[in-house]
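Q: What does the assembly look like in three dimensions?
Context provided by user:
Components: three
Sequences:
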Amino acid sequence: MGVTSHRGAGRGAVRDELRRAVGKIAAGSAVPVFPMAGVGGRDAARRIRLSRRLEVVSSPRAANVLLIAGEITPRLLRPAIRIHDQASPPRATLFLIAGGAPEPDVPSKPEAGSNTEVAAVESALRTHAIRDRFFPFAGLVHQESEVEAASRALHRDLVLAERATEPAIQPDRPPLPWRGRGPYGHGGKGMTGGAPYGRPLPERGNDRDGLQLDRLPLRIGPFFPPLVPGLLLDVELHGDVVQAAELGPNPFSGYVGASATCPFMRALASPVRIADLELSRARSHLRWLSDALHALDLSALSIRALALAERLEADNVPLISAELARFSRRLERSRTLTWATRGVGHIRVDQVGDTHGPVARATGVEADARCDDIEYLALGFRPIVHDDGDAWARWRQRIGEARQSLRLVTQAGDRRSGGAGIVEDPRGMIRLQTHTLDSTSQLLPELVTGREWGDAVLAAVSLDLDLERDARLTSVIEEGR
Amino acid sequence: MTDVAAGVLALGVALFLGVYLVSVLDRFVSDLVAGHGLTANVFWAGPRRAVLLLLQQPSRTERPDAEAWAFAPALLGALGALGLATIPLAPELPLADNADGIVLFGAAMALVMVAVFLHGWSANSVFPLIGAYRFVALALSYEMPLALVLISAALPAESLSVGEIIRSQTDVWNVIRQPLGLPIYMVTVAGLAFWGPLRLPDAADLSGGTRAEVSGPALAAWEVGRSMVLVAAAAMGAAAFLGGWLGPWLPGVVWMGLKTLVLLVLIVWSGHHLARVRTERFVVVAWVVLIPLALIDVFLSGWLALAAR
Amino acid sequence: MITAGALLMVVGTTTIALLVLRWVGGAVRRETIPEPQRLPFLGGNPPTTHAWSRYHIRYYAMALLFLAFDMEMVFMYPWAVVFVREGTVALVEMLMFIVILLLGILYAWREGALEWA
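A: Here is the predicted structure of the complete assembly.
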């Protein structure tokens, strides 16, 4: 008896040693991270691509660490919990609560007691409350610079089994009561009857080819990696074709105030250096480029583009400008890139409506608030316009505008622009106290309907949506009233 | 019998080395393109990730076809191994240099479609399912050019055996006398291993496609199986177009390995430089451009073979 | 016969090796998988129905075209072996056959069978 237990203990010790040795090898691997961006967390969530020690994965199944950056609004909470529970053990969650990452060109901290600071503290408190209530086991950092080290520590502890994997937050219950008989749920009403695993089989609907076929009604998002964070898209798929599409509610609305950290929002009220505005614009376009390359499975090039955006500062503009010129020549010569994007997501001029910015200019509409600005005109500014109106035109539009912005930075000196209540930000015109809203996101359903899913995603990516900006514009209008 | 055992062993070693090499190359090119510095990490990243995946729990969806899901990666790898087995890696190691080598290779590569389809189908989830059907469209399009360029390579050899095809290139390699062959073949290799511009079933727009619901060891097996197919296809390219083991000074196996490596570098490089193409556009290009070009290749090669008689 | 046996061995060994690889993880951690972990991934929302469905394969015309060419392939393998022995006759015969099939592709292309979305 004693001998057996001794031998058992010995075997257990050997197994633990083996487990530790294997764990040590695994701990040296890059950490598979699935990022989820809430309010103000999008840039931080994107920047983890730059770290060699972290590896962004496209599905929570393959992730070890789930990064929740920024505030989780009520509409994002359930999806975040579901994704947490979908991740395969061992898993750990890391919260980044600092109101996300501020734009690097923030001029000064908002004064204590200002509306902005109060809003930021409120937002952080709400996220802390969510973490305490639903993710009490999760890790927490306050600075973006700590994310890499914290993720690696979580990862190491998980694979060495020094930290228990996080349990599921939702109860262990099937989604709907079992109605059928047998493992496949047969034996209910009708041919297939029942509801295998608590979900009905698809119903049939009219296809555009005049056939009666199964339709899959789905709500995609808000954390679907190829689409922008927060985008809820209600689609009906027939095979791989989007039969109908509708935008879901904006999960950010009501949770973003008029941010004083954004130079374009500041320029609404008072003059801001043109160099600051244009640097910010170039960064925004390069970040979009990084996302768009990522959606085309060019993750290494996407890191290159993002590194350009994040390295860009006022003092290295010529260097970045030269690198960007080389990079853009390479992209514009790429035959497969034109194959992937030409003719995709085509917008007609009559569809442009209330859409501004690069999307409108890539459709041939020469609308740019900078055209009415005497300071910009003095710099010889003329907007870039493409006529094609497809995704490829929008690619060239944004790359061209990023290069143009860098040229303007070198020329602008100390010139200032703004204060007139109208500003051209990277996505279009914003105005103080009007009710003309940017409607780029409203274009989306029309663009994806009738398209193959891959084309639909590339069309969505080419619009460079920002749902936080949409929510912020709405809140500006409401403040103005 | 010992010959056969040695052949099987050599095949195992070749597959293992090939899969490891693909992981190193992929990491190397990726780091280079991303602008990261190069470190010794390229050699360890693949194995470390494999061990990490072994420690992860395999996932399961609500009502999956569990058996088919488990079988799909194994089938993919087995097809890669079978494809490589048809290729004599050196004249002294003829494991299965049977008379119908390229027929068998073509058959194995045709079944890749089944493996990928099962992998996407079994999860009972929308995006893997779309990836699965997408791959069928892709496979039906690259299948013909693949078989046609291999048949052109067989014409001067008057045999379907891969060994004979290599021996027929003693004077001049097929890459020179059939200039259309290798470029068309490389496009079909990208399709076979759904690599780079033809990474359609596992694409980012499907959030990982057929692998979106896969985790842990199953994901590792899938990656390994895919690399095996890539290695087999690259080795066949080296044998059919670059003269296989033929070459001065070095032993035949080394030449075979080097030529395979060149083709692997090409494919892996393309994976980090060329954007994923649209499924439909590839289908049109495959049928309207690649197949006619491959047929021209067949007739030109045939004409040259007759002239050389 | 020996080669066939060897090939079977190769296929069998690889299949078993990858299946074992897949199940190794299951052996390391044997917990049952709770229900919320089984939800298919759609970016945070649950699906309303099963994904398995009567999927509209819009490229069916292309698949039929493939069948025609696949039959042609069956003729081409033996043709390749005897080609040099038979000489120009074999070349001309196959050329005629192929041209007829190519006309089929052109027709299908014109009818839009290769594009579906």
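Follow-up: Chain B is about 70% helix and 0% strand.
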